[in-house]
Fold this sequence. Notes:
The chain is mainly beta. It has strands at residues 4-7, 10-12, 18-24, 33-38, 44-50, 56-58, 66-71, 76-81, 90-96, 101-102, 106-110. The strands form 2 sheets. Strands 2, 4, 5, 6, 9, 10 and 11 form a 7-stranded mixed beta sheet that branches.
Amino acid sequence: QVQLVESGGGLVQPGGSLRLSCVASRSILNSDMAWYRQAPGKQRDFIADITSTGITNYADFVKGRFTISRDDVKNMVYLQMNNLKPEDTAVYYCAAPIFGSWGQGTQVTVSS
């Protein structure tokens, strides 16, 4: 089991950027990691994942705008979000699928 804690959410104007961080309570070396999001009244959607070897995969709606990365020394996973749109408003969750673990989420609101 691993505990995950996200941070970095907030209010940003359309076209702005945010960087989300996720810290794990133990080593995530050799573990695939992922980001998801859930808007009010909607299902939780996959955003991106990154394998233990650094291979990344993105949902079509974030390609070219979001970048997932990891720092295994710090047990951290990041989500750089650029050119944010109002429809990106959601709670963003970090996940460690191999452990079945989710963070508590961090709110991102894109509004002028």
